[in-house]
Amino acid sequence: RRCITVCGTIGELLAKSGSFSQNVEFLNLLPKRGPNAFSAFCEALRETKQQHLENLQVTTLMQRLCSWNFFLLLICLFCTEPMEHSLDNGDGPPIPLVKYCTPEFYHDHQHLAYKLISEPRGLALILSNIHFSSEKDLEYRAGGDVDCTSLEMLFKHLGYQVTVFHDQTAQEMQNSLERFSKLPDHRDVDSCIVALLSHGVEGGVYGSDGKLLQLQEAFRLFDNANCPNLQNKPKMFFIQACRGDETDRGVDQRDGKEWSDSPGCEESDANKEENLKLRLPTCSDMICGYACLKGTAAMRNTKRGSWYIEALTSVFAEDSRDTHVADMLVKVNRQIKQREGYAPGTEFHRCKEMSEYCSTLCRDLYLFPGYLPGK
């Protein structure tokens, strides 16, 4: 009943076609109903908790006004945070607990896989930037803290020793990566993980000062020449950052069978080494997952975090017990392919994203979560 008083003339609202137009008209009328109208309306909704609206005399009207789209609109108009390329319908699975592999699975697959049984499994570094200086037009990365926490929990549950740094300048990021790559503890573990979470462009991610850290420089720190403690050990990189500002609008799928098969890639055997001392390519045993394709923007939900990190943590927690990393990243790609932006009335409505990965791995990379020999 109080909502009728606040809303004003019902006819003016119902005269508008479509729920979105009615929502806009409602917000136009609301300020005209006096200084306490908005707070009274919010209080009425809190008291009724929506499920009691059916007991009110204006059930039909309130069901139309108090739809989910209406609350999204309220959030956009009244929230102090800027709207980003991130508003969607909240799809995506919750993050499950990491499931452990069985001793039987380990013994059946370890002969074709990288040795990955050290305790800890390896060292992991997360560099997460969500606040940026005002010199560059880089907005606050709402939801970035969710990504960081999710990855930190995932890596710990997978058996990694995790270090996290927040809001570093480009030079500080470079220094952190260099110090991390030179840690003597890499000698005693079987793998390594680096995650970079920030704004970015193709080939680089931004520090909190708006300057770029070049990704090739970061990768170089961990190659066989600069990081001998990690030679022949798998090194995983995950980059949650835009690689351009183009929004993938997507295309309509034609009827018919989906083209899902991709051509394979055949590797030739290496030439037999004639010298006494074995040599390695400068860069090998690396795999890098990117949130989006070259030139495109990465999508992020301001409450649940980025699409890519949500998919990554979900897939790795569920499937690392019996799936190697490359195949898990294919599953991540599949989840990202199916996801779609939800932001009615904006250019980002029904936008798409496509993640990808590149690899110089030379064996299957199973994480064997929970498995410890002899225990």
Labels describing this entry:
single chain, 6-stranded mixed β-sheet, 3-stranded antiparallel β-sheet, disordered N terminus, 375 residues, 31% helix, alpha/beta
Global morphology: globular
Mean pLDDT: 79
Which percent range describes the beta-strand content?
Answer: 5-15%
Rounded to an integer in angstroms, the radius of gyration calculated over CA atoms is: 25 Å
Total E-strand runs = 11
H/E series? HHHHHHHEHEHEEEEHEEEEHHE
User: What is the strand arrangement across the widest sheet?
Assistant: 2-1-3-7-8-11
Distance between the termini: 66 Å
**Largest beta-sheet details:** 6 strands, mixed
Discrete helix count = 12
Describe what this molecule looks like in 3D.
- 31% of the residues lie in helices and 13% in strands.
- It is α/β, with parallel strands linked by helices.
- This is Caspase 2.
- Keywords: Hydrolase, Protease, Thiol protease, Zymogen.
- Residues 276-369 form the Caspase family p10 domain.
Compile the SSE list and pairings.
Layout: H1 2-7, H2 10-14, H3 19-29, H4 37-48, H5 59-65, H6 68-78, H7 103-109, E1 122-128, H8 144-157, E2 160-166, H9 170-181, E3 191-197, E4 200-201, E5 204-206, E6 212-214, H10 215-220, E7 235-240, E8 286-290, E9 300-301, E10 305-306, H11 307-319, H12 325-338, E11 356-359
Parallel strand pairs: 1-2, 1-3, 3-7, 7-8
Antiparallel strand pairs: 4-5, 5-6, 8-11, 9-10
Helix pairs in contact: 8-11, 11-12
